[in-house]
């Protein structure tokens, strides 16, 4: 069966006459994990806002399963695309369960409270993320890694086919980075299309099916990480010397990114 696709065609957008995105084109399908790389200010968050319907004044088109998102109401768009923001300390001490339940409100009309179907969706998402033991805990009392899993569960409860994740491992220790990225990869294997912005080429090399690299608002490269994330490309993307080494460990081969100190 053909998987739904997210397509971005010749997308351009700017603020106050200053261009940020310049004719960005790519596509991805449900069941695929794509990492979005590029330095700060390159347009990663702007691209997310365009796909989420927050920036409407763009040129080009964004299609979800062949439907132009300009023709979709916000509730319809939310049934296709979920958003997981950067890790942050919550202001309110909602429980994990209540936080995840909030993700189901896109399926409700105005002034309607979540019913049995929404409660079941929230519980399923919590179990899917392996955080049932945290269900009644306050989100404010969780570690950064645990909070990020809660935010992913909230997006899953929304039942969107595509998930946009804005630096989900930012400010997490190394162990939690690995836990979150492994869970993200597992979700893609379960059929979700996931676009993850990250500052870590290593995450892209280890977990992504494909990578999209932006430079000055344009697509520098797009393809399989092992084929397009070489030293010249990364050096150009970040304006700093970078080396990429092949490391063999048993029957597995890894690529390691290091600064070029020569």
Textual characterization of the structure:
- This protein has 262 residues and is of the alpha/beta class.
- Helices cover 31% and strands 30% of the residues.
- The strands form 3 sheets. It has a 6-stranded mixed sheet, with helices on both faces. Strands 2-1-4-5 form a 4-stranded antiparallel sheet, covered by helices on one side. The protein has a two-stranded antiparallel ribbon with strand order 11-12.
- Helix 4 (116-128) crosses helix 5 and helix 5 (144-157) runs parallel beside helix 6.
- The radius of gyration is 19 Å and the shape is globular.
- The model has no long low-confidence stretch (mean pLDDT 89).
Short description:
With 262 residues, this protein is an alpha/beta fold.
Topology:
Elements: E1 5-15, E2 18-29, E3 33-37, H1 44-51, E4 59-64, E5 67-68, H2 74-78, E6 81-84, H3 96-101, H4 116-128, H5 144-157, E7 162-166, H6 174-189, E8 193-197, H7 201-207, E9 210-215, E10 218-223, H8 225-228, H9 231-238, E11 242-249, E12 252-259
Parallel strand pairs: 3-8, 3-9, 6-7, 7-8
Antiparallel strand pairs: 1-2, 1-4, 4-5, 9-10, 11-12
């Amino acid at each position: 069966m053909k998987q739904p696709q997210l397509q971005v065609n010749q997308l351009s957008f700017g603020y106050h006459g200053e261009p940020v995105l310049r004719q960005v084109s790519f596509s991805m399908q449900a069941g695929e994990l794509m990492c979005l790389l590029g330095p700060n200010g390159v347009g990663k968050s702007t691209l997310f806002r365009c796909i989420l319907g927050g920036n409407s004044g763009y040129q080009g088109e964004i299609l979800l399963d062949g439907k132009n998102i300009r023709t979709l109401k916000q509730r319809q768009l939310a049934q296709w695309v979920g958003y997981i923001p950067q890790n942050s300390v919550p202001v309110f001490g909602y429980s994990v369960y209540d936080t995840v339940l909030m993700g189901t409100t896109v399926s409700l009309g105005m002034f309607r409270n979540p019913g049995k179907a929404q409660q079941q969706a929230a519980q399923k998402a919590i179990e899917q993320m392996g955080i049932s033991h945290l269900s009644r805990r306050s989100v404010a009392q969780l570690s950064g890694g645990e909070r990020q899993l809660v935010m992913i569960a909230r997006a899953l409860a929304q039942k969107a086919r595509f998930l946009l994740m804005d630096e989900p491992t930012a400010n997490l220790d190394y162990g939690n980075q690995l836990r979150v990225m492994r869970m993200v990869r597992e979700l893609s294997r379960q059929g979700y299309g996931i676009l993850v912005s990250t500052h870590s080429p290593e995450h892209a090399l280890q977990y992504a099916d494909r990578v999209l690299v932006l430079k000055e608002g344009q697509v520098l490269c797009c393809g399989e990480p092992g084929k397009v994330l070489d030293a010249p490309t990364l050096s150009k993307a970040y304006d700093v010397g970078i080396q990429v080494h092949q490391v063999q460990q048993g029957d597995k081969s890894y690529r390691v990114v290091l600064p070029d100190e020569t």
